[in-house]
Amino acid sequence: MKLLQRLCTIVTLLSAAYIINAQNVTYTPPTHTETWYSTGTFYELFVRSFYDSDGDRHGDFNGVTQQAEYLKSLGITGIWFMPIMSSSDHSHGYATIDYMDTEQQYGTMADFENMVNTLHNLGIRVIIDFVVNHCSHQHPFFVDAKKNPKSPYRDWFVWADNKEGETYWYKTPTGYYYGYFSSHMPDFNYENPKVIEYMKSVMIFCLDKGVDGFRYDAVTHITGDVKRDIEFFRVFRSVIEEAPYKEREPFLICEASTKPYSDYLGDGTDSFHAAFNFTSSFVWRRTVRDEKPIADNGVNLIEDEIRKYCTGWTAVQSGAYYAQLIANHDAGVTGRYRPFREFGCVEGKAKLAGTLYMTLPGIPFVYYGEEIGVDSDPRFKGDRFIRTAMHWTPDENAGFTTGKNAWNGITDNYKQYNVRTQDARPDSLLNRYRSVISVRNEHKALSLGTFTSLPNQNNNNQLIAYLRQYNDENIVVIHNFGSKPLSNIKIDLTGCSIMSDKPAVLLGKSKIAIKNNILSVTKLNKYDSIIIKL
Prior knowledge:
single chain, about 525 residues, alpha/beta
C-alpha cells in the first residue's frame, strides 16, 4: 500500500512538472497547407430542420437557398449537409434508398443544384454526407437480394445460413443478413469489388452535380479492420485525385468512432483529409461547463489536447487534419444535450466555448443553431432532440414554418434565442460567432499556426492564454473561464521571440500594452475572451 502511495505521489509530481515545463513549449500541427478547407469554417446543416419554404413542416433545399445570405453573414466558408439522398426513414436520412436521387421532401435534383449554385456564388463550398457502410432495407438492390439468393446483388450484402440469436444478424426466408446499426440498414459487402465501383460512381455523380466533397459516415464499421478499410478508402481518394476533379480540391472527412481517429487518415495523403476529434470536443465542453481548464494535478487541459493533436500516437499524420467541434447531430458523440443546455443556458459560456474551439488548431465545424443558442428539451435525450428546428424569429414556430407546427418541435427558448433577436443585439451569441469566425478567416495563424501555451503572472488557474504563429503573424488568445471578471492581467511572452510595441485587439474591448515581454490586459469579463494581434 505504501509503495502504491509513493508511486501515485511520483506520478502527481511528474504531472505537475510536465505542465510547468510545458509553458512556452511550441506545438506544430503536422499539416499547415493553405487550402479552402484547411483555412475555412464549416457549418453542419440538417435540411429537414433548417427552414421550411413551402409550409409542409419540413425544411427543404429552397429554404436553404432563401436563407443563404444568413449563412454568408455568419462567415462560414463550407457547409456539411447531413444526408440529402432519398431515404426510407423520413427523419435523419441515414437509410438510403437511392444514392442518385434527392430526398423527396427536400425537393428535386434541380432544387438541389440551384441551392449549390447559390451557395457557390456566395463563396460557400458544399460537402454532403455519404453513407457508405449500409443502405436502407428498401433499397432496390437489397430488396432483390433478399428475395432471390441468385440475385446479382446477393453478394453486395453480408449473408449467412444460420445466425439465430446472434447480435446484428436478421432472419429472412432466404437467410440471415448483417446490419450493424439496425435491421433497417443492411451492411454492404466491401469484399465485392462491384460495391466499391458503385460507390465510386456515386461520388462521380455527386461531384458532377457540383458538390465539393464528402463526409463519410461510420467508416469504422466497413470491415472492422483499419488496414483493410484503408485499401477501400484509397480507391475513394483516387477519384478526387484525377481530372477533372483534382483542381477543385474536393475535401474528404470521416466520422470514425474508434480511437485513435487518426488511424483512418492513412499515411496522410492516401485516405481522408480529416477526421472529427470527438475526444477533444468533450474536453472543450467540460472545461467551459465546469469552469476548469486546469486539472487538479496542474495539467493545462487545453494545451494537453493540442499536444495530442500534434505529437504521440493520437497525432494526425502529415498531410491531414483533425476537425474541431463542440456539437453535432449525434447524442453521445459530443454530449447528451446541445451545448447551450450543458452550459446551464449561460450565454457567456456558449460564447467562450465557440471562441475557444475556433481559435485552436484544426478545422472547426459549427452545428446549426449552435450560434444562436438553440436549446435541448431537458425532458428528453437522444438524437431527435438535438435535431430540432432552427429558430429564425420570436414568432409562432420560431419562423421555421408557416405550417401548423414543425416536424420535430421547437425548443422553449426560441423567443430570445433566434436569428432576428440575436442579430439586433451587438453583444449577442450570434454576433460573437460572426466576429470570431471573421477573425479566424482573416488570420491564418488561427487555422494553420503553431500553438504555444503562455503563463500568466496572476496565478489564476481559470485564465488561459496561448500564442498562434504562422509565417510573420502572431496572435494571442486569452480566455477567462471563471464566473468573475479579471483585471490587470499579465501574460508572459518571454521566449516567444516577438518584437512588437503596437498590439491590436481583434476581438474584445480591453486596453492592452506590451512592456518587457509582458502583455498587459486591463480587464476581462467573466466567461470572456480577447484576441490580440502582436
